[in-house]
Amino acid sequence: MRNIFLFIRRYSTLLLFLLLQGFSIYLIVTYNRYHNAVFSNTATQVTGKVNEQYNRVEDYFRLKKTNDSLWKANERLYNKLRENFQIPDTLSKIVIDSLKIDSLEQHRKYRYLQATVIENSVTTQSNYIVLGRGKNQELKEGMGLIDVNNGVVGIITTVSSDYAVVMSMLHKDSHISGKLLKSGETGTLTWDGKQPNIVAISGIPKSAKVAKGDTVITSGFSTTFPKGLLVGFVTEVIPEKSTNNYTIKLKTAADFYSLQYVYVIDNKQQEAIKQLLDKATQQSK
Amino acid sequence: MSLLLKNIIRFALFILVQIFVLDKIHLHQLVTPYLYFLFILWLPFNMSRPVQMIIAFALGLTLDSFRHNPGFHAAACVLIAYVRPFLVALLIPQEGADGNYEEPSPKSLGGNLPYFIYATVLTIIHHGWLFILEAWQFGNFWYFLMKTLLSTAISLALIIVTELLIVRKQKFRTNTV
């Protein structure tokens, strides 16, 4: 027993070093999307406050760019207005629409919530975005994030009371389901950690007809994003040698360097679908 | 200014500069400009080693909290805080010379060259360990080796600029008062 104490005393520096290294590596290994809530909650609350102050100043430098993008988004929305379309009155079919006005919003599936980006990174292997809106302002884990021009950005992973942390599409663990607009093949969107604004979609069979410039959209197979949101445009098609698939590089539709105003997508039916899936997996066990 | 106050101010300044100035610069995917660890290089000679490591851990974890990736910088900082006293003992001109000055600087290490070696070795260790931890999770080792070398170069340039810009007054202390 005495020898143990002597040993500890003699090598106390080395032991402390190993302890601190071990703790750091423990943090790296165990920290993923849904764990470590205590650390990330307090850390996000504190760092969020600091970033918010900084962002108040930084916003002014990007006003023109932001204004331009909002202007374009508005133009697109104006063009979708019903008043802009006129159908000749030749129809004679009587349609009984049982869903006249959904005033109670019981059939609404997706709701868009606005949020500002207060922190954003593109240089590391695991990039996160912080929003200045949190649990108290209706955000939940698992909601999707898009920019003002409907380009997919990421998924919320942690929420504290006033801030939310989003795993950007530029993150090594990000797996979002994507689809080729023209031919309809679906695949998984991943990032190789090298160039920001360039992601890859894998799992597209070689039978698919893909060309440079094709559009990739969200598939709508997950409960996070509705179908048809812009993901990116094909820049390079690489056939995989060992498999029957292509790896396709995309230029993302969202510009990750200059995110400022974004929308969070709240899927009202997410909970119901999740419960159903849980029930199904329990029954199959 | 007391030692404690000076180091608290330095801690805050280095973290703020790192997060709000250097992290906003996107030079190239291979180059990440790091300067914050200069705080550890500047810690006083006579601080005990466990205290140095705990301070280094706190510095790393603070930066990690801002980047939402706990562990990476903390591990790298603890490593350089552990290695630092060995390096100082190797480079210091004569036995006991570390008692003459407060903290490592070109003057206290006896010239620009020993200080440059001191900074280079610790920078390579810091970047190497940091990027190996990332590579171990991510694959593609050569890419990260290039990243280490290029980032070390830019960090050293930043350290030289900082040393030239900020004059640290170093009083010569003798024990024969």
In brief, what are we looking at here?
The complex is a heterodimer of chains A (285) and B (177). Chain A is an alpha+beta fold. Chain A is 29% helix and 29% strand.
How would you characterize this protein structure?
The complex is a heterodimer of chains A (285) and B (177). In chain A, 29% of the residues lie in helices and 29% in strands. With 285 residues, chain A is α+β, with helices and mostly antiparallel strands. In chain A, strand 7 and strand 8 form a beta hairpin. The mean pLDDT of chain A is 84. Chain B is mainly alpha-helical and 177 residues long. Chain B has one domain (37-165). Chain B is 64% helix and 0% strand. Chain B contains six helices and no strands. Chain B has helices spanning 3-20, 38-41, 49-67, 72-91, 112-138, 141-165. In chain B, helix 1 runs parallel beside helix 3, helix 4 (72-91) runs antiparallel to helix 5 and helix 5 runs antiparallel to helix 6 (141-165). The longest helix of chain B has 27 residues, at 112-138. Chain B is globular, with a radius of gyration of 16 Å.
Quaternary form: heterodimer
Q: Count every beta strand of chain A, where a strand is a DSSP E run of 2 or more residues.
A: 12
Most extensive contact: A-B, 40 and 31 residues
Biggest sheet of chain A, open or closed, and with what strands and sense? 6 strands, antiparallel, barrel
CATH class of the domain at 176-255 in chain A: Mainly Beta
Question: Helix count of chain A?
Answer: 5
Percent strand of chain A equals 25-35%
Work out the strand percent of chain B: under 5%
What is the arithmetic mean of pLDDT of chain B? 85
Per CATH, the superfamily of the domain at 176-255 in chain A is: Rod shape-determining protein MreC, domain 2
Strand order of the largest sheet of chain A: 1-2-5-4-3-12
Q: Quick check: average pLDDT of chain A?
A: 84
Shape of chain B: globular
Q: How do the helices and strands follow one another from N- to C-terminus of chain A?
A: HHHHEEEEEEEEEEEEH
Number of strands of chain B: 0
* Main pleated sheet of chain B: none
**First-last Cα distance of chain A:** 51 Å
